């Protein structure tokens, strides 16, 4: 079976589907990052902050576009998906917008804020033991049981053309805003796991700024994409491990892989300690309480892993801010001082 490859036409069509339900997330200039990175006058750093969306992450973009394309054939059947929490809230929000019942499978250990946001938009939640899932396959089994027993249409959090196109709308927003200011992009830095966020954004960034180097960022113990790039094919990790709960997919999505392989300049990995230090830095310099998966791309910049050659601006994606207060305080309580302080 041929895999459909998402295009820019799909991204532009997705914007028409999404825009009635959500406004663009802000693109904020970070003077503090410009200073920290020692950039010369005239080069800017921009943070695309999806924490401002109604669900606290980018995930509702893909969820809205996916569900919007299902409503005509769905009838009164529910929809279901497995999620670490952010796609759960995104699909729940989409269900509220399109008046469809949503059933979510989430790990027992997901942050409470992700449970609360998902339930606040009317979704039903089932949980599983994520620590044993690599052995039991409980996550997929539960989701498939719901689909079979309740006649639910199953959504993928990242491996679907409509999800990719929806996520790409965020990249289109970045391109449009910077082009209106006559800016150029040298580096685009974004988390990558299953690849739905990055694939959509890479399409838009590459179309708007062909010279930009697009770099993925992964936890060092969950670097399936980096391993895939080296191998030249999709590699599965049996037990990805990180505090970045939103970046623990077992492998890159089948629909995402051709886009990522074609458009990305590479991928860097970040240990959890450096992600914690970046969370602390973002809080102290911008007052942002970020989840680890959202802060990891900033960590890659702060640790100097990305070569900032060229003369254009740098765009970094802050993918989400759904983190419990107590856990956030524990994570930023780091005794080690980063080299960039």
Question: What this model shows, in words?
Answer:
By secondary structure, the chain is α/β, with parallel strands linked by helices. The protein has two domains: 8-57 and 161-332, Rossmann fold (3-Layer(aba) Sandwich), CATH 3.40.50.1100; 59-154, 3-Layer(aba) Sandwich (Rossmann fold), CATH 3.40.50. Helices cover 45% and strands 15% of the residues. The protein has 14 helices and ten strands. The protein has helices at residues 8-18, 31-36, 59-74, 86-98, 112-120, 133-136, 138-150, 161-180, 196-208, 224-231, 257-263, 272-286, 292-302, 325-332; strands spanning 27-29, 45-49, 79-82, 102-107, 124-128, 153-154, 185-191, 213-219, 266-270, 313-318. Strands 1-2-10-7-8-9 form a six-stranded mixed sheet, sandwiched between helices. It has a four-stranded parallel sheet with strand order 5-4-3-6, with helices on both faces. Helix 5 (112-120) links the parallel strand 4 and strand 5. Helix 12 packs across helix 13 (292-302). It is globular, with a radius of gyration of 19 Å. The mean pLDDT is 95.
């Amino acid at each position: 079976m041929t895999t459909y490859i998402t295009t820019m036409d799909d991204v532009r069509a997705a914007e028409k589907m999404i825009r009635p339900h959500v406004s663009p997330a802000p693109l904020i200039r970070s003077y503090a990052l410009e200073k920290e990175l020692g950039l010369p006058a005239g080069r800017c750093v921009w943070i695309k902050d999806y924490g401002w969306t109604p669900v606290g992450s980018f995930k509702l973009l893909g969820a809205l576009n996916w569900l919007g394309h299902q409503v005509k054939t769905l009838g009164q059947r529910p929809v279901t998906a497995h999620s670490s929490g952010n796609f759960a809230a995104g699909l729940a929000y989409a269900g509220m917008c399109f008046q469809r019942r949503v059933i979510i499978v989430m790990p027992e250990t997901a942050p409470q804020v992700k449970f609360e946001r998902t339930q606040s938009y009317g979704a039903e939640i089932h949980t599983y033991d994520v620590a044993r899932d690599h052995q039991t396959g409980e996550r997929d089994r539960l989701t498939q049981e719901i689909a079979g027993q309740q006649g639910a249409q199953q959504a993928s959090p990242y491996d679907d053309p409509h999800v990719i196109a929806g996520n790409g709308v965020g990249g289109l927003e970045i391109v449009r805003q910077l082009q209106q200011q006559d800016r150029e992009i040298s580096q685009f830095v974004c988390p990558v796991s299953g690849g739905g966020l990055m694939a959509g954004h890479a399409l838009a960034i590459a179309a708007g700024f062909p010279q930009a180097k697009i770099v993925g960022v992964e936890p060092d113990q969950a670097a399936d994409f980096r391993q895939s790039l080296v191998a030249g094919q999709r590699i599965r990790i049996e037990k990805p491990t990180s505090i970045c709960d939103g970046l623990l997919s077992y492998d890159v999505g089948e629909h995402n892989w051709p886009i990522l392989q074609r458009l990305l300049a590479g991928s860097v990995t970040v240990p959890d300690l450096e992600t914690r230090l970046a969370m602390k830095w973002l809080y102290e310099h911008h007052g942002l309480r970020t989840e680890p998966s959202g802060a990891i791309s900033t960590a890659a910049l702060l640790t100097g892993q990305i070569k900032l050659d060229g003369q254009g601006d740098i765009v970094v994606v802050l993918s989400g801010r759904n983190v419990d207060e107590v856990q956030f305080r524990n994570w930023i309580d780091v005794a080690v001082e980063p080299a960039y302080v």
